[in-house]
Amino acid sequence: MPVALVVTVSSRLPALLAPAGWRAVTGNRSVIALPGAAAAADALRAADVPVQDVADAAAAAAHGEDVVCLVAHEEAALFPEVPVVAGAPEPPGARLLDVVGVMDRLRSPGGCPWDAEQTHASLRGYLLEEAHEAYDAIVDDDLVAMREELGDVLLQVVFHARVAAEAGPSRRFDVDAVAGDLVDKLVRRHPHVFGNAGPRDVAQVEAGWEEIKQAEKQRRSPTEGVSRSQPAAAWGAALVRRAARAGLSTPEAAELQATSPEELGERLLTVVTAAEQRGWDVEDALREAVRRYAGELDVEAAARPSR
């Protein structure tokens, strides 16, 4: 068969070739390319490597000499008897490039008019909705739903980053900036992995994370950086945890007679029922209490000497 060697290339990373792939395309054989490898063929021609485009596998097989055939990963199955070289092994996460590419197409001229008109403000409700749906899938241990809902959360991240990339200079950032900030933060806050802090147990890791975070943020009050839009119970729990770590006051704990989280949940539900019967909104009532506590924490933190 005229096709002596198949080299798989990446449509996502067309200019990337591993050493084995580079040796194959710069050897003694002529190089041809199927349509799925068109971008890689263009990149090679730009580097003065001759590549001839062919329409399909039949045209490749009909070639008059032994050749190296560049193909997309999914096209390699068209040559079951031919040795295959992984010319551009894709790293984990390569399909994230497709997500960014699809969003670029949707927001560009000729894309989707609905996607094109969205703003940070119009999208913010979807971010909460998708996060709640992902949470539900995790609670239900529904792996199929979890995979889908995590994808929807990822969409919101990429969507907001794309909107920001189109903003004015003072408000502009892109998805690479988001990813870069995340990587930098993870490296800074894991000195026991990426630095020379030495081995740590879980408690030491958590304490170190908080110390590094405090040094980075220079926050005076435990209320700073805690989302006020989360459910009141979660908001209150976050403030209590942070206040305790900071040595600030926490509300007096009730005498808890429940012996399990399940029993506690049942008792809390009876409180919700009683409040509903009186026409009280239990979420609003708790939110107001947490809001007052947050104000007290701010005052207490401001009165402390700087550390």
Automatic annotation (TrEMBL):
GO biological process, one term: UTP catabolic process
Gene3D superfamilies from the UniProt entry: MazG-like (1.10.287.1080)
InterPro entries hit by this protein: MazG-like_dom, NTP-PPase_MazG-like_N, NTP_PyrPHydrolase_MazG
Gene Ontology MF terms in the entry: nucleoside triphosphate diphosphatase activity
UniProt keyword annotations, A-Z: Hydrolase
One Pfam family hit: MazG
Domain NTP pyrophosphohydrolase MazG-like, residue spans: 118-194
Top-level taxonomic group: Bacteria
PANTHER family in the record: NUCLEOSIDE TRIPHOSPHATE PYROPHOSPHOHYDROLASE (PTHR30522:SF0)
Protein name per the record: XTP/dITP diphosphohydrolase
